[in-house]
Amino acid sequence: MAPxxxxxxxxxxxxxxxxxxxxxxxxxxxxxxxxxxxxxPIRQVWVTRAEPGAARTATRLAELGFQPIVRxxxxxxxxxxxxxxxxxxxxxxxxxxxxxxxxxxxxDRAVPVLAVGQTxxxxxxxxxxxxxxxxDGDLDALAALIRSDPALKGARLQHPGAETPxxxxxxxxxxxxxxxxxxxxxxxxxxxxxxxAFDAVLxxxxxxxxxxxAVLAPDTARGRIxxxxxxxxxxFLAELPFAETHxxxxxDDAALLARLGKPPIAV
Length: 267
Fold this sequence. Notes:
alpha/beta, Rossmann fold, 21% strand
């Protein structure tokens, strides 16, 4: 009888069973890089966001070595509301689109600005606002920034934004400050479908994800990769059989593009 090693117990190699063909789409992965390279290599990337952001993303993709395919699912329509009377204690911006739509409507650049992230904050500074603070995150992070500031207790915050907001900032800061929504733009579906060929698709918002789910056939999603800017956006893609769905580590363009990894070397 052969002697046993160690404490006399035999070691068993336990392997997790692999999901079968009917296991359904994989769970979204947050952060890091795509690891399944048995899929088609990512070279052609479909950009679904509205202009002018789509052009900026396409430029970054090209610089990274990808082939961008700009086919927006949304377009931005600017509204012309009458600004409320009286100066607010601060302006709140949750998107670059909100800054771009508000800037021509009011010339006052001395009002303090609270921005959801760095991209929106940079747009506000470029528009001439002198005092800009960024929450460096999403709507929850912006709400946390407002609630943590005693100077904003009871403040009147004016929020130039989308006609149909993606979230309710007023509810998140209820009891601390008052949010006055002011619709300055709307995002409408373009009616465009998927390009003839693409390896991955970028989703910059829950609204874009909802539009994608409405136009993309399941057979077209199969074998391809989706990269979403947030878990909320990824949730709208759950019924589509993408090979992988990845979530950006932070809600910005750079983090979203990082989920693509590196493009294959051209031969």
